[in-house]
Amino acid sequence: MFNFQGMEAAMLQMGLATYSDTTTFTDMLKDEDRNEKYLKAIKIAVERKQVENKKSIVLDLGCGTGLLTMMALSAGADFVYACDEFPHNISCCKKVLHTNGMDNKRVKLIAKNSKQITVGHNLDMSRKANILVTEIFDTELIGEGCIASLNHAKAHLLTDDAIIIPERATLFAQVVDCPLIRDLSIFKPIEISETMRITFPETITNCSSKTNADQGLDLIELAPGVDFRKISLPLSTFQYDWATSEKIPEDFDTTKTEFVVNSTAEANAVFTWWEMQLITDEEVAEEDLIISCKPRWARGAPTYEWRFHWQQSAYYGFKPVPVREGNTCYLESYRGKDMRNKDGYWFKITQDPRSEFLVDVSDPFQKIKVNACLCYFHDATSPYHFAMQHDPIRTELYVKLLRKCIIPDVSICLCLSESSIILPLLAVAMGAKIVYIEEQEQYGKLSSLDLITSLLMHNNLPLRVHSLDIQDKNGIPGNKVQIVLGDPFYREKLDNYLQNHVPPLGQRYSPWHHLTFWRRLNQIPPNLLNANCIILPNVVKIKGLAVNFDNFSRPFTPLAASVCGGRYDLQDFTKMIAPPPSTSNPRVGYHTLWEHSSKASSEVFNLLEIDFTSKPNNLEFSKNIKLHTNANAVVFWCEWKFGKDDDNHNNVLSTGLLGDVGIGSKPKWYMNQAQAVIFSKTTWSERLDLNIELNMLDARSSPNLSFSVRG
């Protein structure tokens, strides 16, 4: 099966650190709205210099494949300097220019970061540029260091009358009440019974962790009035005017924006997106020179340009504020370095016009305090697993099961899951005599046991949770485990992961990665478990569904022979990122599909069923799937069964499809875990033939399913 090491090395050289980067880069090249608007803006800039009887000297800052360089050359630029700090990008750009017949004396490639470029005789640039074009922008706009790069270029690489494309950009923010997003960082109380509930201290609920405070999301699938309520209109927060001579602050900046509350609600999240004015021209309609990442529900016009490479963001790492319709509130916006020294944003909502900013700009510790998780709970796991642990559907099932299984002050439990905070807590609340957890790594200053102990104390519960090395053959003197519990959830070891899989987006894992539970279960010495030990979950089913995505397949399909209306050939880039020709195995990506609209093309099918009382083993098998309509992807997920069959399926937790779905209908996906997706290179019709291998026995790597697909 396919090993990605060769492709990983190429991507790292090119500056494409992960599989997600190659797909976003491909999607950017396919973005015809972006391409046509950049081409139009570049033509306007070159024509202006011609009218002024000046040579047009262009600097393409961060040239990548060379697409903007070719636009400048075809627009009539006299000379183009194309710079990129990644040598593999420069190599790709050189090949692309040659293929398009543009590797001539009018272009020079510079393999440097723009801040290292020198200007003068026999130096990198013989003269300063009077046109700069760049697209070093991400979903947050500033995350790729555009502020520092453009400040430096204006000061050292450009003439005073230089035209900068884009001319300006604005970050818009909208204050909302969105429980789905809020739950990614705030634990909700868990109802155990009419007289008992689990609560969480303010150190957790008020933690302003930037670690969990922004997500590149496709917000179009969130429905206004259903999934969230608009509390403010879209607010202009940060404006970046690169056309002026003023230097934009690089380290830190703040704004305070007044707004009138639209709806009585809880302000618990901020949605953001940006709009970019490439150039201003009285003879061209303004909308033809503006690139907008505004979500569909925020647009007045029916048209919508879907993008994967530039999406929207949701910020949720701040204390929720109850607000009342008609009242005046203030959005405090902060721009600065996060804990990774990456430019980013965070926000605070207040009803007090005299409220002071969260930070003293002159005090660097204050910046760290805003950015860091000081409660350690957010650092203990990913935002999605954080939300999954206090998902009411899951906690209600756990409480129901534990109520049936646990004999108060008698039962001994073992929790087999990594970063599981809630499950041991619930077991103690239901009366377990002892709850063991696996020995785990430290999170900041605290271990998982420390975090659980602090919550037990906060809820006045007995301190009955202890850590255990499950491979200790000496077992537990005088005790045997009667109940084994699992979320199940396990972190991926990235070094092993990169050898065998496509890297996840952030902390998104494959559904079958958590089969580590099966492996760990079978590593427990027999003398540790009671003869009638209850295993929960006891069965897992890996299920699948063929779908047809409305837009989401675009980044994962091959680039066309030419882009921008057939003007430019970028097949050299396609060849560079293509997997070795010796394999036809597809890439498996892991994505939270609630963000992406699709329709079912097949019936739901069972791929694999595993009973955890059996021994882990490697498997090879085939599956034939009938397609009722065309499909461009097939999706996989896990269903975990807890206990005996339930006619109403109330003992099953799905990490993928929620409920039933008919052919041609829109599936509803679980939000807090990623699903596995294989995209087709061409449309599938009639049937799919799957060949699958399950690797469970290689202790050096995580459980893995490998596929070959023929449609």
From TrEMBL:
<comment type="function">
    <text>Arginine methyltransferase that can both catalyze the formation of omega-N monomethylarginine (MMA) and symmetrical dimethylarginine (sDMA).</text>
</comment>
<keyword id="KW-0489">Methyltransferase</keyword>
<dbReference type="InterPro" id="IPR055135">
    <property type="entry name" value="PRMT_dom"/>
</dbReference>
<dbReference type="GO" id="GO:0032259">
    <property type="term" value="P:methylation"/>
</dbReference>
<dbReference type="Pfam" id="PF22528">
    <property type="entry name" value="PRMT_C"/>
</dbReference>
<keyword id="KW-0808">Transferase</keyword>
<feature type="domain" description="Protein arginine N-methyltransferase">
    <location>
        <begin position="250"/>
        <end position="332"/>
    </location>
</feature>
<dbReference type="InterPro" id="IPR025799">
    <property type="entry name" value="Arg_MeTrfase"/>
</dbReference>
<dbReference type="Pfam" id="PF06325">
    <property type="entry name" value="PrmA"/>
</dbReference>
<keyword id="KW-0949">S-adenosyl-L-methionine</keyword>
<comment type="function">
    <text>Essential arginine methyltransferase that can both catalyze the formation of omega-N monomethylarginine (MMA) and symmetrical dimethylarginine (sDMA). Specifically mediates the symmetrical dimethylation of arginine residues in the small nuclear ribonucleoproteins SmD1 and SmD3.</text>
</comment>
<protein>
    <recommendedName>
        <fullName>Protein arginine N-methyltransferase</fullName>
        <ecNumber>2.1.1.-</ecNumber>
    </recommendedName>
</protein>
<dbReference type="InterPro" id="IPR029063">
    <property type="entry name" value="SAM-dependent_MTases_sf"/>
</dbReference>
<dbReference type="GO" id="GO:0042054">
    <property type="term" value="F:histone methyltransferase activity"/>
</dbReference>
<comment type="similarity">
    <text>Belongs to the class I-like SAM-binding methyltransferase superfamily. Protein arginine N-methyltransferase family. PRMT7 subfamily.</text>
</comment>
<dbReference type="GO" id="GO:0016274">
    <property type="term" value="F:protein-arginine N-methyltransferase activity"/>
</dbReference>
<dbReference type="InterPro" id="IPR014644">
    <property type="entry name" value="MeTrfase_PRMT7"/>
</dbReference>
<keyword id="KW-0677">Repeat</keyword>
